[in-house]
Amino acid sequence: MKASIKYYFLLCLIFLSGHFLRAQLVPYTKIFSEDIHGGYNQTWQSVQAPNHKMYFANTGGLLEYNGTRWNKYPLPNNRIPRSIYADSLGRIFAGGYKEMGFWEKNDVDSMVFHSLVSLLNASVLGQEEIWHITPFGKKIIFQSFSKLFIYDGDTIISLLPPGNIMYAVEIDNQLIVPVIDSGLFVLSRDLTFSFLTGTERLSDKKVTTILPFGKKELLIGTAHQGLFIWKDGRLVSWQTPIIEQLQRHQINTGVILKNDLLAFGTIQNGIYVLDKLGQLVYQLNQKNALSNNTVLHLYEDKTGLLWAGLDNGISLTEIQSPVISYQDKIGSIGTTYAGVVFDNKLYIGTNQGVFYSRLQPSFFGLQILDFPLNKVEGTQGQVWDLEVAGNQLLCAHNEGSFVIHENGAQKIANIGAWKWVRNPYDSLMLFQANYNGIAIFKQNKQHHWQYKESIKGLSTSINELIFVARNQALISSPYQGVKKIILNDKLNQVVDIHDITMLGDNVGISEWQGKIIVHTAHSNTVFDPFSMRVRPFSDVSTGQEGRIIDGQSNNWFSVTPESMTIHKATKSRTIPLRLHNEFECITPLQDNLFLVGLDNGFSILNLNRVHQRNRSTPPSIDYVEIQRPKQKLKMGAEMTRKGLTLPANTQQITIYYSNPNYLHQEPVTYALDGLGIGWQPAQNGKVVLQNIPSGKFLFRLKSEHAELTFPITVQPKWYVTGWAYLVYGLILFGILFLLYRWHLLRLRKQEYELEQKRLEQQKEIEAKQREKERQLQEQLIKSENERLQFDIKSKSKELANAAISLAKYNEALIEIKEELKRIKDAVPTKDFGIQKTIKLLESNLSDQSEWQVFKTNFNQIHEKFMKNLQAAYPNLNQSDLQLAAYLRMGLSSKEIAPILSISVRGLENKRYRLRKKMGLTREDNLVTLLEGF
What we know:
With 933 residues, this protein is of the alpha+beta class.
C-alpha cells in the first residue's frame, strides 16, 4: 500500500513538474523597479484612468505613469494608500489607514486630494484601514476587513457586514462579499445582506478572489484550497492540471483577461495564466520574468497588457505577445544557432550540442512539453545547422556531419561543417559548405544520406552557398569575400571562379524575395547576376539597417545587435530581442512560426500576432509650461484644445505629453506649421519650443497611428498692435502737421536768412572795404616804419662809425702817447714839451664830451633805451650804461676797448661786472638781452 502511494505521489510529482516546466516559455515582461518609478518596493493595487494613464497604490504614495514619466502623490500625513479605484470622471479614489478620499486633476494636470474623512464621525472610522475599493452601482464602497463605507457623492454611511470580510466584488450588479468563517454574502441595493446558497463550504477557507465565469457562474480563488466554481447554488472544486501548485503557492489575486484567459497571482510563485479549460498557458515567476514571486495585485489595461503589483516592483506583460522566450540563465543549453521541427519534435542546435522536445498545439501555436530539453547523445560541441532532408535530420557540426536520431547521432563525415544546401535541380543531391570547401552527399538505396566526394578546386572554408544556375553558385568565405564559381557538368569540380567582392570580415550572403543579398555587419547590397556586381540595397527596398533575413507570407526580418524588426508590406514592428551577432538564427518551424536563436536560449515567434496587436493609444497633452521673463506659467490640457494664446514676451513653451503605449513605445514626432519646423523627434515626454515669433501656428504631435493638433497664437509686440498703429497714425498726422508748420517756418526763415545774407553781404563788402583801407594804412605805416628803421639803422651805422672813428682816434692818441713816453724814457732829458704833449693827449683821451655827444645821438636813435635799462637795473652806473649802449649797437670788445681807453682784458672785466649787476647766468646772452630794451 505504501509503495503504491509512493508510486502515485511520484507520478503526480512528475506530472506537476512537467506542467510547471512547460511555463518556461514566457511572453515579454517589463519590470519597473523603485529606481524607475520613484516609489517604494510594494505596490498594492493598480488601475487605469479614462485618459489611459496608469495609477498605482504604492507604499510610497500614489504613483502616476503616462508612458514617458512617473509622478508621485502622497496621502495626507504620508499614509500608505492600500487601495485605489478610478471612476469614469477620472477621479482616483484611495484608502489607507484612517483615510479615504479621492484625487482629482486640477486645471494644470496636478492631482489634488479631497479627503472624505470629515463626512464620518471619528468614532465610526476608528482605527480602520481601507484595503479595498469597489463600485456598487453609482456608489463607491471603501472596505476594511470589518466595515463597509458607502459613499454616494455627498455622504458616507458605515455598514457592518455579517462578520470579518475579504475583498468584495461587484458582479452582475450585485456586490459579492466574502465573509470569513461563513461563506459568500450578497449585498442588495437596499443595503441588506443575504447568504449565497452553496458557499458554506468556503467558511473555513480564505477567499482571495472572485471572478465572473460563464453564465451566472463564479470562479472563486482561495489561498490554500485552490479554485472553486459556483453555479445555481452548488459549489464544486475546479480540478485544473495545476490545482496542486495553486494550492501550494497560495492564490492571492486574480483577473479575467481578454481571449478567455485567466491570470492568478500567488504569494510564493508568481503568476499563472490559464485558459478556460484550466490548462496552463504561461507561468511568470522570479526565475523567468518577474522581480519577485509575491503578487499583490493583477490588472489588465485597455490594450490587454497585464500589470502586476509585486512585493518588490511592478511588472508589465504582453500576454498576446508575438514572442515567447526561454531564457537559459543557468547555461543548460547555451547559445542557439539552429532549429527545426522533425517527427513532431523541436530540435535545436546550440554551442553545447543538439537538444529536442516533444510538441503539442497550444494557445500560442505550439507548446514545448519537455523541460529541461532532452539532449541528443553524441552531439556535444558546436552545432551550426540542422536540416531535414528526405526522412532524415542532418546536423552540421564542428566535428563533422551527423544524422540525428532520438536516441543518438550517427556521424557520416569527419570534416567540420557550416551549412546544408539543397540542390535546387536535383533532389537526390545535397551540398554541404564546410571547413575545407564544399562536400557532396547523395542518398543510397535505403534513402540514407552518405558522403560522396568534395568539389575539386576549393580548399578554403566556405560558410554560405547559393546556386544561381545549375552549375553556377555564389560562395562566401568568412575572410575572403564573395565569389562566383562555375562547375563542370558533374558539379564536382570548379572550372572557373570570379571575385564578386572582397568585403572582408563577416561577409555573408542570403536570399531575400528572389534576390541575393550580400551583407556585412554594417551594410547590405544586392548581387546583380548580369553585371556580376553588387549595388546598394536601398535601390530595391526600404534600405533598413541590419542583416536581412527572408521569412514567410511576404514577411522578412532586419536584425541589428539590439533588436529584430519584422516587416510586411508597409507595416513593421520591432521586438527587443538580442540575436547572436554574425550567426543570426531565424528559422521557420511551422506556418508563421519561427525559432529565433538567442545568446542564452531561444524564442518562438508567431507572425500571426505580429501585426494584430491591440490598437495603440495616441499621445495626449498633459499640460504646458510658459516661460516669460521672471515668470513661469502652467496651463492645463484644456487650454490647448481651445488653442494657446501667448503674450509677446514668451521665451519658451514646454509641452508635456503622455504616450500610454507602455510596452512598445511608438516614436513620437512634432512639427510647428507656419514656422518651418518640420517633423522632429520628441523625447522624454516633452517638446520644447523657444523664441517663437509673433503669429499664428499649428502645433502637431504624431505617433505611428495617431496625430493631435492645436493652434498656437503668439501675440505681437505692443508696438505692432492695432492701438499702436492708431497711435502711429496720430503721431504721423502730428509729424505731418509739424512738418507743414516747419515748412512755413522754414520759408520765413529762408526769407529772413536771405535778408540777413544780403545785409551780411553788404556788411562784408563794407568790411572788405574797411579792411582794404586798413591794409593800405598798415602798408603806409609799415613803409614809414621801414623808412624809420632804415634811418635808425643808417644813423646807428653812422653813430657806430663815429664811435669806431673815435676809437681809432683815441687809439692813435694812445699810440702817440705811448711813443712819446718811450722817447722820454729813452732820452732822459728835462724836455717839458714832451711831458706837456703827453698830458694834452691824456686830457683828450679822458674827455667826456664825446660821450655826451654819443649818448645824445644814441638816445635819438634808440629812444628810451637808457631810461628803460636804468629803470630795470637802477644799480647801473654811467660807465655800465656806456658799455651797454656800445654793446646794443653791436660793437665788439676790440672795437669798444679803444673807445673807453682801456684794454680788451679790462673791457672783458667790465662786461663781467655788468652781467653780474644784471643778474645773468652763464647761459644768458648779454647782447640779446640788451636788444630787448
